Amino acid sequence: MGSVLKRKSGRTVIQWIDGSGRQRQETLPRNGKDGKPLTEKGAEREGRNRLVDYEGKARRQRQGLEPLPTASLDMLFDQLVDWWWESHGQALKSPAIRGFLKKHLSPKLGRLPLREVTTVKIEGVLTEKEAKGELSGRSLNHLRGFMHNIYEFARKDGGPWAGRTNPVADVSRRKQEEPARNILTVPEFEPVLDKTPSIWRGPVATAMYGGLREGEIFGLLKADVDFDALELRVHRSWDAERTKDNKVARIPIVPQLVPFLREAMKSPGVFVFPKADGSMQPRKLRLGKFLRRAIAAAGLLEGYEHRCKAWRCGWREQRQDPTAPARPDPRSPGLTSIGVRERAGERRDVGRRRPLAGARVMLSGRNEEGAACGPMGQVTAWANLR
Fold first, then answer.
1. Residue numbers of the domain that contains 134
2. How far apart are the first and last CA of the chain?
3. Across the beta sheet with 361-366, what order do the strands follow?
């Protein structure tokens, strides 16, 4: 039961126990709602009325009908992102997530306390980026999704947002436009593989015919290759015991892939495509440079467009002859360096699982400050095996 106290200074103070069991106090104003000074009886009446409201709210909080009070409402949004990263985010596959969130959210939301980060403000940040063309619809949806996951994790018991609603839940999703892709047909796979260095021919063939991501290719164990059932059991990514989407997939081995896998099974160690000593390939390894050169050497590539996505760079260059060296340019002198998306292929479920094979090559260079530009997607090699 709360109480109304009278201080020697003449001020009236109310005292009660909130929903979390903490004792709380509040000093009443000297004047009432009409602006006139409160009498002694008027102050006590105002205090009793407030106690009824506060104690009713505390009762509802203890019953789980309202969120518990917490000092975390004063936590800044940047601090929430840091807390989420340390508690959960760093276990995710991509280490670039934190930088992505800081880059696009910190300027507008980073210094705001959580009580001020509302659905309307989040919607406004995404709308502004969409209007300025800073992010595509796909990237905006990724940004929204990460924010939604942050609040969902923070809503768990003991989290800084425990018991509260997720402000991102009502933020609208953006329309995504699929970019046009150049498609490699299945008959073109063999000419490309013939131009691929022999040491990487097996991994590239697995990406094409099996649709595996890079991490799944180099994390594939020999025990996961079943030649009797003609299946690959995909459940690892690099050295992690799970894939990017946390799913175990059984991928059919097409006849064209069998000789590459049988040759790879002769390697030392437990991995299908290991280093010379049998250990796992380094995570820095990217198949893109081998694939792009092979596509160009096979005469299947007429040219490409380099678009730098580095912050405030905006450099763009088109080249008709993919085998020619990059022309010197002060903004992008390193245009010939190459990277590749982490995902070397995709799978989709249509009745039974069909591999969607290929590797999407990305080019990277350096901007005028010498910072790395990229990744930039242009050359693609996708095919739906039927």
1. 72-154
2. 73
3. 338-340, 361-366, 372-377
- When divided into structural domains, the chain yields a total of 3
Question: 23 and 57 share a domain?
Answer: yes
Whether 102 and 37 map to the same domain: the answer is no
DSSP for 88-116 reads: TGGGSS-TTHHHHHHHHHHHHHTTSBGGG
Predicted confidence band of residue 344 (pLDDT cuts 50, 70, 90): very low
In the block, tokens 């995902």 appear at 343
Which residues neighbour 55 within 8 Å (Cβ) at sequence distance 6 or greater?
A: 1, 2, 16, 17
Radius of gyration of the chain (CA): 29
Residues 356 and 307 in one domain: yes
Phi and psi torsions of 237, nearest 5°: -135, 115
Read off the pLDDT of residues 192-234 as tens digits, 9 standing for 90 and up: 999 999 999 999 999 989 889 888 999 999 999 999 999 999 9
Per-residue pLDDT for 71 more than 80?
no
Q: How many CB atoms within 10 Å of residue 126?
A: 22
Question: Any idea which residue has 């909130």 for tokens?
Answer: 18
Residue 128 within any structural domain of the chain? yes
Q: Which residue, 150, 166, 205, is CA-closest to 67?
A: 166
Least confident of 94-98, 180-184, 257-261, 305-309: 305-309
296 in helix, strand or coil? helix
Per-residue pLDDT tens digits for 13-56: 988 887 766 778 888 888 877 778 888 888 888 888 888 888 88
Q: What gap in Å lies between CA 357 and CA 355, rounded to an integer?
A: 6
